Automatic annotation (TrEMBL):
The protein's name in its UniProt record: Peptidase, M23/M37 family
InterPro entries noted in UniProt: Cell_wall_metabolism_enzyme, Dup_hybrid_motif, M23ase_b-sheet_dom
Name of a matching Pfam family: Peptidase_M23
Annotated keywords: Coiled coil, Membrane, Signal, Transmembrane, Transmembrane helix
């Protein structure tokens, strides 16, 4: 018992004795247990914090990646906006040219989409326009042998103004009306030989000269594409062909512009043929088409 120290504790419950060796042993056991628990808890906290840091770093990388994508998208959007702005400016300039050709005064306070509608026609109105204004060729096959304008006459050799075009054709080739109208003249007339003149709507006329046979009569209503005669070599001529003219208010126009006139790009003629008052013509086309629709109701 010499190496042991006894501690005696008296309380209401009795007497308890502890030896120093037992006390140290229990203290070591409790301290070891506490230390192990502390290490485990510390490890758990460290692992949790490490996970949180890793998660924050991952989110940071994702945000940086999204930020780079947004920067690239913003650059692309800006470039696209600049491109669309340039295209809109070009469209505005083209629209101003069309308005000028048609005699329309550009209005600054009108949206460009409204201005486009103002100078545009519906598909039905375009069809109505092409039925009533000369367009296309009077022959199935079109080869121009003499153009519109000043030239040396092929027969008398004089320099004169050619008010139409000559289209190559064998004798007896069918000739068709290029728009609806009324036959103003059908018969012989000077150097034209056998001639047909058709009066169309909106101030237009077409002339078909050097015919061999005439299939219509004066005063007869003609529809676009209707057979009106056959080519020949009557009048002052050096070989068989069709002489074709288009006039607007008695003024000769270049028939080539109307022969090549197409529905899909009908506005091109506004630039090529400026002697026609296209603004008033389109207003009249729109009005007459609406009236025609109302009559059918």
């Amino acid at each position: 018992m010499r190496d042991r120290f006894t501690i005696t504790i008296h309380d209401v419950n009795g007497v308890k004795q502890y030896t120093l060796k037992q006390f140290v042993k229990k203290f070591f056991i409790y301290f070891s247990a506490f230390l192990v628990l502390f290490i485990l808890l510390s490890s758990a906290v460290i692992l949790y914090l490490y996970y949180q840091v890793s998660e924050l770093d991952r989110k940071k990388q994702e945000l940086m990646k999204k930020n780079r994508q947004l920067i690239l998208e913003n650059i692309d959007l800006k470039l696209n906006i600049d491109k669309k702005t340039a295209e809109l400016q070009q469209l505005s300039v083209k629209l101003e040219n069309i308005e000028e050709m048609m005699g329309l005064k550009p209005e600054e306070d009108i949206d460009i989409s409204d201005r486009i509608v103002k100078v545009s026609l519906t598909t039905s109105q375009i069809y109505f326009l092409f039925k009533n204004v000369p367009n296309g060729s009077p022959l199935r096959e079109t080869v121009i042998t003499s153009r519109f304008g000043y030239r040396k006459h092929p027969v008398n050799g004089n320099r004169d103004f050619h008010p139409g075009v000559d289209l190559r054709a064998k004798i007896g080739t069918p000739v068709y009306a290029t728009a609806n109208g009324i036959v103003e003249y059908a018969g012989r007339k000077g150097n034209y030989g056998k001639l047909i003149i058709i009066q169309h709507n909106y101030g237009f006329k077409t002339l078909y000269g050097h015919l061999s046979r005439i299939k219509v009569k004066t005063g007869q209503f003609i529809e676009k594409g209707q057979l009106i005669g056959y080519t020949g070599r009557t009048g002052l001529i050096n070989g068989p062909h069709l002489h074709y003219e288009i006039r607007y208010l008695q003024r000769p126009l270049n028939p080539v512009n109307f022969i090549r006139w197409k529905k899909l790009d009908y506005k091109k003629i506004f630039e090529k043929e400026r002697h026609v008052q296209w603004e008033s013509l389109i207003r009249a086309i729109t009005r007459d088409y609406q009236l025609a629709v109302l009559r059918q109701l």
